[in-house]
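Researcher: Here's my situation. A collaborator sent me these components and asked whether they could plausibly form a single complex. I don't have experimental data yet, so a predicted model of the whole assembly would be a useful starting point for our discussion.
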Amino acid sequence: MHEVNRDHTVSRRRILQSLGMVVALPLLNDASPSLAAETDVVPKPGTFPALGTGVSLAGELVSVDHVNRRGAIRLVGDNDDSRYHSAPSHRFAMLPYGTVRYHGAPAELRDVPIGTLLHGTFLLPAEGITAYPPIEKNQSKYVPAQNQALTLEDDFSFYERQGQSWKITAVDISKGTLNVSSLGQPSSAGLTGDCVFEIDRSTRVWNGRAFGELKDLAPDQSMQLNLTWAPEWKNGMFHVADVWIDPESRDVAREVQRQVHIRHMRTRWLPGWVDHVEHQPGGGGIVSVTLFSGMDQTLYDAARAEAKPGGGASMAAAEWTLRTWWQEHDSRNGPVLDFKDSPNPPPGSSGLQLRVQFSRLLEGYRAGRIIRFRPNSFPNVKLPPEARINSLDER
Amino acid sequence: MIRQKSPLALWIILLFASTASTTFAAKPAGFDTSIQPFFTTYCQRCHDAQKQEGKFRLDTLPREFVDQATAQRWGEIVFRMNSGEMPPKNEPQPKALELGAVVDWLSTRIKDGEAARLAQRGPVSLYRLSREEYGHTIYDLLGVYLDVNQPGLFNDDPRWHGFNRIGALLSLSPSHIDRYFLAAEKSFNLAFPDQPTKSAIVRRDANQGHEILLAEQKITGSVRWQVFPGRRENLMNISQPGNYRVRIQLSGLQPPQGPAPHLSIWHQELKKSIYDQDILAPEDKPILVEFESALSPGGLSLINEVAGAFKQQGEGDHTANILHAGGSVFTSTRDMRRINPTGYLLFTDTGEPIYPMLLIDWIEWEGPIITDEEQKKRSDVFPVNITAMKIDPGEMRTQLKRFASRAWRRPMTDAEVDRYVTIVESELQAGETPDTAYRAALVGVLTSKNFYYLEEGSVSQKRDTVNDWELASRLSYFLWSSMPDDELLAAAQAGSLAHPDGLKSQTRRMLADSKYRRFTESFPKQWLQLHRVGMFPPDPGLYPGYDKWLETSMSLETLAFFNEVDSQNLSLREFISSDWTMANPRLAAHYQLPPLATTGLQKVKLRPEDHRGGLLTQAAILSLTSDGTRHRPVHRGVWVSEAIFGRTPPPPPPNVEPLAPTLSDKPKATIRMQLEAHATHSTCASCHQKIDPLGFAFENFDAIGGWRTEEHVATGQGSNPLVNASGVLLQGQQFQGPDEFKHLLLQDLDHFAEAFVEQLATYALRRVMTIDDAPQIKAIATASKPEGYKLRSLIENLILSDLFQKR
């Protein structure tokens, strides 16, 4: 037993290094001034962060406040006994332009089951924003200061985006182990090379358009998987929650999630922020907005399509959490004058900027303020009460 | 020496030779030569002794127009001729001009007859106090503000060509008696309340109650009420009626291309504004507004009253209302963190206002304020020795007599005192306390006809002039719209009013008194018919810049203009043409004058390119003759005729087709073009030739008095047509635009002066002037000419004239 543990320790150190904790650990210890320049990025309203800023952290999703786009992850184990016993979970808030991907498609936190291992990029709390979670006075040394999520992805999305997949090298159902080896372009953070994961009858095997069984797992299969907590998590052990063993199964999962996302966004509207306001006499003006990234392309196309005679859009004032007040009632509608696509936009930006004419402007139409954009082809519906903001103190 | 008539004078004479005078009742002259031949040719063949068609004989109808029944018969004849019913189609038809001349002649006589009836006076003439005069009289008698405009107290007084103090129209009905009782009781309750009136200072501060929030949110500064256009802040509540001193600290921010913010204090129960002022003060340098006003109980709202207001509270404009809900507080344009983002954007990122904005820090009101002078007015009304148990009979009698003599504006006789003492005694016998019994007698004094009627003449003595007491009241109600004060009554008692020196001395004293302000407000309102301003609110779609404050400013300009002419004792010619006016920033913007740096009405120098000056080009005058959608040249012509020349043209014939909108496939046409087509109709042409030029002179002004060079026409083909403000008077004088028209008027000021004296006398004597008064009116005007028709000279000369003392 003692021997086994020692073996695990050796193999899992390598795993942890692959998961990006090499970057995270020095930060937790606040011991690497040379890295501060690229990791101590403070987001500013109205400005997207530069490419490559922020720190990469991975952990299992342990709580979600999906209405406010907040949650907490338990950072993956790093063989530190003290941290194993006492570290609090890492509470985070999504940046307004922060994106979530699940099953290889755009998603919201509400789409991601508790227990899913997520890979993310995190920035320091935004300037002038007092939103949750605050940096506590006696912040635990195990909790990184970077608590504003720029990206969050499940394993499926994370590895597939980077061109990495897994090949089964061995399966032992009786022992509950799955031996894999990475294929394709090695991910910049995360696991690569040979790994051993736990499996059991709770593992969902996606096979074609249906669920399969453990016996469908066979050596040399190319697959994607989603990991979750396992005993010995301190030493980097993971359980396989889902495994996709063929391309069709991955397409099915991706498309279902994409449709979930599209349905959600058509009623919640596309988030963005105000770049500029051109005032006109009488209280009207032209508002330029840039939509945030991470949404399905058909939604951006719907926005672009309104830039025509008779087209138009509504804009609701929104908060840092992307929540709106009474959007179907308190938004203003006007014609979309034109749009512009910028190549290579910074993280968080879709690169799509639209100009909308309004007869009267709202307080929320100030440069840097968050809005929700509804192309006229989207439904104008009332959101459920818990989704709406009712007072300034709820922001 | 016979004065040479100017061309315009000749035209005026011609114009009104056949139109009705508003006032001069004339004997019907010229019937045989002007009318009878027409009747003989076209009418009497059927309506004579033989045929009596329709059981009507024209040959025996008296040629008399003062008798009401006969006048009505003549009115019926005019109606039937005008409508084309008579002569019947199968009978010989008169030419249009023939018919027009006869209708004109008869209409003039009918109007003259009406004037004579209105001016008829018996041995005793009774002139009921107008509602406005009643309120002033109660204040001067008891030192209390009775709000006569409060709902349920008095009705609006009937008007005759704008004047609401014509005795013949101010009749008395049982409901009046009931209201006089109510008003008298209210007045005494105000003067002698059951509980002593306690004056207090109440303050509402915008920051109050927000201290903790500001500290928690680390917001510096104090909360201010941000009052955007149309916003109502219901901040004041008055529980006791009386005079209040109101103080408000606030800023007023004007957008770069918009009007100044406007503070209006709206009385919710009376549904009228009690204070109006444009406010200009930087955000960081608020000003203090302070004023005194008589206030009735009720809630008051502070409103930013400007055009383009958001919807009012309760009208469903969530975007406006939310700016004051959901925890929003405003402290500074530099910190908008606590403003709800779904509300309208009111300031740019640099703090520049997008709309006219009021930022109110606090409001404070103090009152009811009772001055020593007011207290003194009611100090000797109640006997000193009155208690809950007894009243001193001798003192009661003395006090009653003193009070009633003041209230009735003449000594109370002993017999009259006896009657009121009897009231007290009967009340006491009925078990009332001495206080209540005495109060019943006081109410009786104010519900006596001797109080609410001005009585002139006597049953026992035929006289053609007023006596000293009547003269004192006539003078007092002319200049003060109220009862004579003690000094004037003393002059009447002493008989000094009967002498010109004494009368002149009292007149000058009264002109210098602050109560004279009542005349300079009331007379121009009635003379110029300013009650019609805003009667037909313009269509917001056509006139989006029109708002309540502009409407109010219009009347304020005209009143301030009159006041300036009066206080500076300027000539009447200023009413026709002037190189100045009284404007506030709102009007300056409306007139496209250079922006004014300060708020409030101020004397503004006018340039020729401003196209203003005098009364006729003031927005109030130009708008009161318009309806909600368009200007009305004919109405303008009639107004000029009435207000400037004192003549009312005959009424339009019945069944006149209204002007139809231009058809969509026809070229756009101005109102004038349509009218000119209309006036070619035989039954219309004769009148319109006289009236229309007076209105066409002001074609450059739209329905709200804005300057224009083309007329907006909603329907039809092509571009909007240019306006045509030229005209030709009957005698051929041509004018091109309002300036030349005014120049023509100035060439003959004498006629305007006479017409003005006639208006002044109508107001002063509370009756319609007749042809019998014409020589005296002319004499008053003539006496004022050497001094250049200065307004004060005209007023003094009227008061010192025989006409003023004539019954």
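Model: Some features of this prediction you could bring to your collaborator: The longest helix of chain A spans residues 247-268. Residues 315 and 373 of chain A are 5 Å apart (CA to CA).
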